[in-house]
Specification:
Elements lengths: L1 E3 H8 L3 H10 L7 E2 L8 E4 H19 L1
Antiparallel strand pairs: 1-3, 2-3
């Protein structure tokens, strides 16, 4: 399922700038999907990729604490 940029911001409880910082800090963060060629074209994220990324972060955290 595709989610809009703002919906992903809500998912992480961050601002748009906060989500951009997460993207810059984590090169493995899922890449957005842009539907269209214009600058104003909507940007979406695949929710399955987002959830998998979160799970990988949780697994890495658990390895450190174990």
């Amino acid at each position: 399922m595709l989610k809009k940029f703002n919906e992903i911001c809500e998912y992480f409880s961050v601002t748009r700038d906060g989500l951009r910082k997460i993207q810059l800090k984590n090169p493995d963060f899922p890449k957005p999907i842009k539907l269209g060629d214009t600058k104003q074209a909507p940007v979406y994220f695949d929710m399955k990729e987002i959830e998998a990324w979160v799970e990988s972060k949780k697994a890495a955290r658990d390895e450190v604490t174990a």
